[in-house]
Every structure is written in structure tokens, then in C-alpha cells.
Design a protein that fits this description.
Elements: E1 3-7, E2 10-13, E3 18-25, E4 34-39, E5 45-51, E6 58-60, E7 68-73, E8 78-83, E9 92-98, E10 106-107, E11 111-116
Parallel strand pairs: 2-11
Antiparallel strand pairs: 1-3, 3-8, 4-5, 4-9, 5-6, 7-8, 9-10, 9-11
Length: 117
């Protein structure tokens, strides 16, 4: 059974930083591309970032480019999202998802990120 467990969310002031983690189990993590998506209050899912299975190619949405960095540790079966220069509009529930953009087949329960102005 695929399990994805996010952690690291919380309340932070505008301009602050957070590092999200996603612990993966139930599948061969190193064989799969992974993504981060988010859902702001009252809005639909928004793709945030993608990283390939080897961890040597990554993409981020324009809305977070230059502020967020996705990475992974295949030895630890863990996906990360380093979020810097956070803005109130980054407030959302953040999910890690198994698979590339728009082709996710599993995701976690999410972690809440709240950025105060």
C-alpha cells in the first residue's frame, strides 16, 4: 500500500521559511517522479513542483519559482520542499503526490501552511 506522509507545515510570518517533508513507503520511491501540489482555501488544486526519479531534474510553478526548491533523498525515501520568502498567498494545504505533473496516482493527507502578513 502506497503511503505518503507530509510534515513540516505550520504558521509563519511573511518572508519566513519552512521545509516540508514527505515520507514515502509501499513502493520503490527511487523509481518514481514526485510532485508537490497545494490547495488554498476555496480554490482548486495547484501544481507546485516536480522532481524526476533520480533527483537531477526539477521544475517549479512560476508562482513559486526562485523561492521554493524541491529535492529528494532516495536513500531515505523522502521528498522535500524548501520554501523561502513565503507570502500570504502561499497559504494552503500542501500535498506530496506520486507521479509527474497531472499524472499523480497517490497523494498524502497534506500539511497546512499558513503565512501571516
Amino acid at each position: 500500500e502506497v503511503q505518503l506522509v507530509e510534515s513540516g507545515g505550520g504558521l509563519v510570518q511573511s518572508g519566513g521559511s519552512l521545509r516540508l517533508s514527505c515520507a514515502a513507503s509501499g513502493f520503490t520511491f527511487s523509481n518514481h517522479a514526485m510532485s508537490w501540489v497545494r490547495q488554498a482555501p476555496g480554490k482548486g488544486l495547484e501544481w507546485v513542483s516536480f522532481i524526476n526519479s533520480a533527483g537531477n531534474s526539477a521544475l517549479c510553478a512560476d508562482s513559486v519559482k526562485g523561492r521554493f526548491t524541491v529535492s529528494r533523498d532516495n536513500a531515505k525515501n523522502t521528498l522535500y520542499l524548501q520554501m523561502n520568502s513565503l507570502k500570504p498567498e502561499d497559504t494552503a494545504v500542501y500535498y506530496c503526490a506520486k507521479g509527474p505533473r497531472a499524472l499523480y496516482d497517490s497523494w498524502g493527507q497534506g500539511t497546512q501552511v499558513t503565512v501571516s502578513s
